[in-house]
Amino acid sequence: MVKICCIGAGYVGGPTMAVIALKCPNIEVAVVDISVPRITAWNSDQLPIYEPGLDDVVKQCRGKNLFFSTDVEKHVREADIVFVSVNTPTKTRGLGAGKAADLTYWESAARMIADVSKSDKIVVEKSTVPVKTAEAIEKILTHNSKGINFQILSNPEFLAEGTAIEDLFKPDRVLIGGRETPGGQKAIQTLKDVYAHWVPEDCIITTNLWSAELSKLAANAFLAQRISSVNAMSALCEATGANVSQVSYAVGKDSRIGPKFLNASVGFGGSCFQKDILNLVYICECNGLPEVAEYWKQVIKINDYQKNRFVNRVVASMFNTVSNKKVAILGFAFKKDTGDTRETPAIDVCKGLLGDKARLSIYDPQVQEDQIQRDLSMNKFDWDHPLHLQPMSPTTKKLVSVTWDAYEATKDAHAVCILTEWDEFKTLDYQRIYENMQKPAFIFDGRNVVNVDKLREIGFIVYSIGKPLDAWLKDMPAVA
Ligand code: NAI
């Protein structure tokens, strides 16, 4: 029986390994992590991450050919294939701080593999890493080798949170990069055989190591670029009276462009887009390509601009101050169908409103209060560096409350900001919400989920990103 071990039981390691175990009953899969609470949760009925369909997959294989453990060394030692799916956050200190990927976790995993291994292994980069990381990993593994043969493969993950199980069941493609040597090709074939249990052969792409590593960074940069492109257009739509949904639809109908990922919003979030683009920018700079670096930097600049623009719009519309006004925040996760708040635009929007001393009442169906409090007290990039966590400042604590009900959050509020596109926000009883709010009652829809005309009929002053402004907003000072 082939044995697989995955180091890192996070948003990627957990679901990917659960699906491999489900689709390959003849393979034993162990997912290991240094975090005891995470492994305990994986072994309980309350999994550590919320992902539609995940519970079901885990239930079918856990205890049969899928195991979660903190005994990292044992499972690595026994495995034929070791996936490394640890976090690769942005560096917060030292050389490349604020841009380069922090490979501390990766390097320590690689050193541990070298130390404990007693047999040949295929080591698979599952984490998103800078191009050429495999070279460094190879050096760590081979310099410590006791005659053991390690083959390094790059097998970046393309799943999207919220649809992870669907994406893993039916991936657009599986990408495997390896050395162009006989040993490298054999390792590629071994991993291909795993995926071939359920992925059609023409969806499995094989490349050299550097192409695979770079393709993941490129894919995330292209995806984020589409969002920033449509968000840049949304600002122009508001200035001209065009409607961004109509523009996106018309543009997306061009088969060369396609309709996906063209929704204007308050900005992209999630653990990957920003960090991977910053990393791409850093790699370009290190390779003497400042113009290319500058080009990709703009994707992040527009994202920051969009979040600032939203906050400015809220404040400017409400007589240029939100001080001591209650603002309901509907949605805190970075997108619907996940409880993940890493780099969610809600953090920047809430911090912006808190900067003007708003009182925030926050509701998200999947995010717990302590998570929101942690997020709002953290410095940029610190979320993936647990040691830097600080308690919420007393002032922030006083201004923020978290509720478990949208109606409670909006009661007596001066304004509602919708920051995540949860389906339930489309069907709220907005008449009831309006009646219980202060007047004039404002709705700022950062995800284009509400029916603007209906809400205006009820009496709300509505702002929806990239949509024609109503008379009230037009009379307010220009927002930049
Ligand atoms: P995560 O933070 O949810 O999980 C990483 C896990 O690795 C943590 O539980 C941590 O305790 C563990 N870990 C760190 N060092 C370890 C060590 N030395 N030994 C054992 N366990 C260790 O991160 P996530 O979101 O799963 O991301 C992992 C990688 O996958 C990152 O490089 C990310 O960029 C990439 N990725 C993430 C996607 C996502 O949607 N979250 C999608 C595609 C790629």
Automatic annotation (TrEMBL):
GO MF term list: NAD binding; UDP-glucose 6-dehydrogenase activity
SUPFAM superfamilies attached to this UniProt entry: 6-phosphogluconate dehydrogenase C-terminal domain-like (SSF48179), NAD(P)-binding Rossmann-fold domains (SSF51735), UDP-glucose/GDP-mannose dehydrogenase C-terminal domain (SSF52413)
Transmembrane annotation, as ranges: none
Binding positions (NAD(+)): 8-13, 33, 38, 86-90, 127-128, 161, 272-275, 342
Enzyme active site: C272
Domain of life where this protein originates: Eukaryota
Record-listed E.C. numbers: 1.1.1.22
Any single Gene Ontology cellular-component annotation: nucleus
Domain UDP-glucose/GDP-mannose dehydrogenase C-terminal: 328-452
GO biological process, one term: UDP-glucuronate biosynthetic process
Keywords, comma-separated and alphabetical: NAD, Oxidoreductase
Catalyzed reactions: UDP-alpha-D-glucose + 2 NAD(+) + H2O = UDP-alpha-D-glucuronate + 2 NADH + 3 H(+)
Pathway annotation from the record: Nucleotide-sugar biosynthesis; UDP-alpha-D-glucuronate biosynthesis; UDP-alpha-D-glucuronate from UDP-alpha-D-glucose: step 1/1
Coiled-coil blocks: none
Stated family: Belongs to the UDP-glucose/GDP-mannose dehydrogenase family.
Matching NCBIfam families: NDP-sugDHase
Protein name: UDP-glucose 6-dehydrogenase
Protein species of origin: Nicotiana tabacum
Gene that produces this protein: LOC107771267
